[in-house]
Amino acid sequence: MKLTAFVAALFTCFGIVAQKPITVEISGNVFNTNKADSVFIGQSLTQGGYKNFIGTKIDKKGNYVLKGTLPSKDYYVFRLGTQHINLILRDSTKLRINADGKNLGVYNNIVGSDESVALNEFVTQMALFNVQRDSAAAYLKRYPDQQVSINQSLQQEYMKFTSFRQRFISQNPNSPALLPTVSTFDLDKEFSTYESVVKQLNQSFKGCPTIDATYAQYLQLKKQNDAMNILASGKPAPNFTQNDVDGKPLSLSDLKGKVVLIDFWASWCGPCRKENPNVVKLYNKYKDAGFTVLSVSLDDNKDNWLAAIAKDKLVWPYHVSDLKKWSNDAARAYQVSGIPFTVLVDKEGNIIDTKLRGVELEQALKTIFGF
Question: pLDDT, tens digit, for every residue of 238-259?
Answer without folding.
Answer: 999 999 999 999 999 999 999 9
